[in-house]
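Regression check, G3I case 385:
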Amino acid sequence: MINRHLSAALAASLCLVACSRATVPASASAGAAPQGLKDTFRSAFLVGAAIAPKQFEEQDVANAALVKREFNTISPENVLKWVVVHPQPDHYDFAPADKYVAFGERNGMFIVGHTLVWHSQVPGWVFQDAQGQPLTRDALLARMKDHIQTVVGRYKGRIKGWDVVNEALNEDGTLRQTPWMRIIGPDYIAKAFQFAHEADPAAELYYNDYNLDYAAKRNGAVRLVKSLLDQGIPVKAIGSQEHLKLTTPTAAEVDSSIRAFAALGVKVNMTELDIDLLPQATRNSADVSLRAGPAPSLNPYAAGLPDSLQRKLARRYQDLFRVYMANQEAIDRITFWGVSDGDSWLNGWPVPGRTSYPLLFDRQLGKKPAYDAVAAVAKEPRVVP
Ligand code: G3I
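Current build output:
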C-alpha cells in the first residue's frame, strides 16, 4: 500500500540523491527555468520519448522543439532495429541512427538504443544459411555477435543504455519460442548481454518487455533477470514497456512490479509508456504481430475525444505518476512511446487507420489535461510505499 508521507526535509535529501545521477550533462540543466517535464521531474527521474526522423532530423520543426523543451532522454522508435540498421548480411545502414544519436548529443540528452535482439523487425536471412536452411547454433551466435558488436561498438560511449533483449517472455512467464530460442536455446539471452557488454563495458544493459505488471509475466521476468545476475551478467535495469489501458493494469499492479524488480537490485525503466483508450480489438497485448478490423465501432473518437474521456485519461496518468514518484529511487527514466497523439503507433495497431489519444500532447502538439495532471504530481507531498 502507498500510505506514508515523507517530510519535506527527507524529500529534499532524496532529491539530492536523485540529482546526483550522472546521466545528463550539467550544461543541459544549469540555471534553466523549469520548462518541460524534464525540469518538472528532474529530482526524480529522466523523462523522454521515442522519436522518429521527423523529430531527430528536425523536418517537423515544432515537433523537434517540443522534444527539446520537454525531454532529457530519447529512444529510437525504429531506426536501430535490425531490419533498418542491418538489412542485408554484409550491409549496415547507419545513416538514420547516426542522425538520431547526433540529435541527442546536440541537446545533451541520455541516448537509448533499442533494440539488439528481438523476434520482430529482423530480416528472415538472419536465421538462414546461403541455401535457405536454418542456421546452426554456432552460426547464429556468430551472426548475433557480429551484429551486436558492430552496432554497439559504433556508438560506444555515446548511446548510454541498450535494450539488449526485447520481449523474450510469453504471458505465462515462460520463454517465447522465437527463432533465437529455437536455434540457440535459452542461453541466447545471456550471450546477447555478454556480447553487448564486451562491445561497450560502460553501457547500461536492459531487458525490455510489455505486460510486466501482470503477475505471471512479472514473475517470469524476475526469474529471468535473477538467473542472468546469478551468472554475473550486468543487467542494469528492467524496461517495463507500459503499453497500458485505461483501467488495466491497476496502479497497485504497477507498484508491485516496480518493487519486485527493484528487490533484485536492478533499476526499473518505464520504456514505452502510453495509454490506449480505444475499444480493445485483440487480446490484451502489445504484440506487434496482432491485427484486427478495421470497423467503425473500433474507431469511435475519429471526430474528437469526449471531455469525459479526456478527464479519465488525465486521472489515469496521474495515478501512474503517483506510483512512479513513490518509487523514484528505483526508477531511472520514464519514456513515452511517441511524442504527440498524431505520432503514436496506436493509430495503426492493431487496427489500421484509427484515431488514438494515448499521449500527453494532442495532434496540434498542445498539452492535454493529462499533461497538467502529471505535472501536478511533482508538487504533491512525497508518498512512499
Ligand atoms: O519503414 C517502412 C516504410 O519504408 C514502409 O513504406 C512502411 C509501409 O508500411 O512501413 C515502414 O515500416 C514501418 C515502421 O514501423 C516504420 O514506420 C513498419 O511497417 C511498422 O510495422 C513499424 O511499426 C513499428 C513496430 O514497433 C513494429 O516493430 C512501430 O512504429 C513502433 O512504434 C513499434 O514499437 C514497438 C517497440 O519497438 C517494442 N515494443 C512494442 C512497440 C509497439 O509495437
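Comparison notes: Residues 77-78, 120-121, 166, 241, 272, 286, 288, 345 surround G3I (CB under 6 Å). The first strand starts at residue 4 and ends at 5. No diff flagged against the previous build.
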